[in-house]
Amino acid sequence: MARVGIIGAGSWGCALAAVAAANGHAVTVWSIVEAEVSMLQKKHEHTEKLPGVILPDSIEFTGELETAVTGMDLLVLAVPSVYTRSTTKMMEPYVRQNQIIVSVAKGIEEKSLMTLSDIIEAEIPAADVAVLCGPSHAEEVGAKLPTTVVAGARTKKTAEYIQSVFMNEVFRVYTSPDILGMELGGALKNVIALAAGMADGLGFGDNTKAALITRGITEIERLAVQMGAKAETIHGLTGIGDLIVTCASRHSRNRKAGMLMGQGYTMQQAMDEVKMVVEGVYSAKAAIALGQKYEITMPIIEQVNEVLFHDKPAKEAVTELMLRDKKAEYHALEWE
To answer: Looking at the predicted structure, is the pLDDT value of residue 276 above 80?
Structure first.
């Protein structure tokens, strides 16, 4: 039995707490929001973010960060990406040497352009930092629907330990050494999902969605490989797999926000309507900055930024994408 501390009591934190507890581990969940802790202690259900999922009685809920961090075999950092740095600063005094910390949020810090694992390593040098991601909506994990994810770590031993903690008959976990590729795939797919949602909001069809997914993964791969990630990762669960589910699912916050913008909402109005953190909005500027830094052209992500931050109508952005200069699909393919 492992002692697992879940830092963050949102939908994903609660879903992963349920998986770990179902596997027989001792789980403690922390939230900075006092009312959220009280609700979870009384009802063992997050009625706002994960309604209908009753969490095992064995899970403990606390508002004391020291309680959730100290003495744990595994820590899961499940706060929204924009709070990763501030939360790790608070955690650092309680973290022991070589403490495994698994990052499960998805994003890139706008100002520093750091991935979340880089931020955790910078703020908690003692930690053994890993990631867990893939096509995995919390609502479906909470409902025990078959789901497959990937544990990424610096060492095979750490990845396999995370795999052993979470894997069961409905939650399959693969392992990978390519943390960078996993994080880039997870963060950038949220930006493409905003575009997919905009297309839905405009009333476009399956042809448009398929084009955005396919060309979107091409943009992600170009940047990721240039930064040192592996193409295989982008073609796998944490790349194309995560992109498909985020672009197509009714559970996707990014798709929903994009759909509202396609219907004429402003970015802020859409985020207010979704009522949860829309990670793609925070990653969009960072994605453009990374593209410029590594000299990678990313037309879909560029147009998403125009809609988000420069009041460009979504329909106009789609028209510009369609009317770009004529190109071959893959320049590496040669004519006989």
So the answer is: no
